[in-house]
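#structure-requests
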Amino acid sequence: MAELEMLLNSIDVLRNEYLDKYFLAAQAINKRKTVLSEVGRIISPKIATEKYDTGQFFLHRVFGYRGVTLFPWTAKVFDRDQRKKPTSQVIPEERNEFKKNNVTPKPHTYYQVLIDQRDCPYVKAQTESVTFLGNHDNTRALYAIPGLDYVAHEDVIPYMSTESTLIQHQLFEKFLTYEPDKDPPFVPKETLLAWQEKNHPWLELSEVYRETTENIRITVIPFYMGCRLSQNNNVYWWRYCVRIENLGDMTVQLRERHWQIYSIPGILESIRGRGVVGEEPLLTKKFPAFQYSSHVSLQDPSGHMGIFKMEREDGTMFDCKIPAFALESKQHHDHHHGGGSVNNLTNQQKKNPSNASSHNDNDPKHTDTSTNHQDDDKQK
């Protein structure tokens, strides 16, 4: 990981003195040697009320990869900031904690982006976070688009590329075309506009949930993927992305997860396990964030919340709250209202098979994407 560490060191310097400076990115020659090569020049970032245009090259502020913007989304952010509200019990017993009117949402700009595939091996986040259901109504097969991501406005560090290979991604030349008189000099092709319109329901980022406990910020972004018919019942699918970010100076490690799931009849169930997606990620000052995504399919609406148990450098533990959120179907006006819980239902669905589709470790139709592509239910 020396390559990414050197890259992030460069970012720390450039963040303070980026104007008229050349951005240097670390590129690995082999496991023992790393060199710096110029990839472009940092330009002034846009304020929060302005949006980046399609075709803007950027560096991700947290994960360090190079990318290019495709189009923006305006999301509603529900931010339950707990930094100034210490509590001894982080999991409320009341189901009404799921009600969105407990928190006033604020609009926030995110961007659909392409990730430079040369940087994917060094990113501590899944690079196949965007998935789709198959085209047939009776299939639950999931298809991933490698190198497609969602980036918050404040995580975009824009630059003008000076590389001969601007962005290495299979969709770059299909989606964007060069027009030297434009700024930025890449504009959307008709294929990008058509692709956006066709897949808008499954691409759209509409709601973001955040909560911070002792300088550990948890962000959850759910995406509705669609509905499939299974044994004459509607089954609703979602993907959701979880980002765990250390905002402080002290190193912490995620040790355990504890989810609480509220199903539509008002039943509360709990799921516990070691780590997430087979890992117990270490969050340091140099590598402060870890991100993974998973999928879930259920027939009945529900909400979920929980905690991550974190360990400090001195060995003491604390509970970090996962913001409460519900999974809601966009088709509830036309079909049975769908909703779901997290993918930690491997054991639970055996108790309640009427509420969940097949969801165990051996089900080839259940897919998780993460840094190591392991199932969230597997124990270390």
